[in-house]
Amino acid sequence: MRAQFVLSEIGVGLRRNLTMTFAVIVSVALSLALFGGSLLMREQASTMKGYWYDKVNVSIYLCNKTDAESFPSCAKGAATEDQKKEIRADLEKMSVVQKVQFETADEAYKHYKEQFDKKSPIAGFVTPDQMQESFRVKLKDPTKFEVISTAFSQRPGVQMVQDQKDVLSNLFNLVNGMNYAALGVMALMLVVALMLIVNTVRVSAFSRRRETGIMRLVGASSFYIQIPFIMEAAFAGLLGAGLACVLLVAGHYFLVNNWLVDQIDLIQFIGWDAVLAKLPLVLAIGLLMPALAAFAALRKYLKV
Predict the structure, then answer these.
(1) What's the pLDDT at 277?
(2) What per-residue confidence (pLDDT) applies to 282?
(3) Residue 250: phi, psi to the nearest 5?
(4) Which domains does the chain have, with CATH numbers?
(5) What interhelical angle do 164-207 and 209-217 show, nearest 10?
(6) In this predicted model, what pLDDT tens digit does every residue of 265-280 receive, in sequence order?
(7) Contacts of 217 (CB under 8 A, 6+ apart)
(8) Which of these, 292, 271, 247, lies nearest to 31 by C-alpha position?
(9) CA atoms of 173 and 39, how far apart (whole Å)
């Protein structure tokens, strides 16, 4: 097989079907960009879970003197020192508890000011005596929250027992929902790309039916006839995959590094190593998917 002939045939095919080739490149780029983005979102969710679930606590909030009207469990007033000592002693005896830390109202107020002073319009109206003292309980197994909740939610002096994992679950559910949406759009774009590839190959083969007929008469094999069409599709797919890689790199640079990192301080975002690790997979799919689609279409279309 002469490489010069194959390359010339590829150039002829691309020039004849320039508009459809451009449509293939764009659709492949969008579908693979969504595919790579969904992989990165899934890795981001896993990174966030590993980071936050390792730090998640169960918070046992104690009654203060302002809670009597708002919380029936605090009708008898603020938690006493004896109640605090009893709660701590019972927590330290439990086998599911790894660590117990007591947070005073002043410490809670300090943490509140650090996190929300610049963002909350009511921060200036909050005073230390309005903050709850609490026990921050680190569990050996974060799924054992019900053991703590059952034992302490009805205790005298306890306002409420809160599992921070439930708060984080809402965030992870949102990330997973966005991931599934991206996968759905990616699947739709992939179908569109495959249909465009098949139609482009068929139009190209039809426009060159005289040349392929002559090649068959002189004894050319089916693979020899098909290879220019397959390489046209592979070349267009590779260009689309390259564009998808550019979109992924640009998205991480502008969206994550130059915006989200500054806007959201509480999330540990994935780094460049995760992005670069996905690029070879995107390029491989962009090269192989159109080539296989073209091969499958040509087996029937060019069959004598």
Answers:
(1) 93
(2) 92
(3) -65, -40
(4) 3-52+169-302 (no CATH), 57-141 (3.30.70.3040)
(5) 70
(6) 667 788 899 899 999 9
(7) none
(8) 247
(9) 16
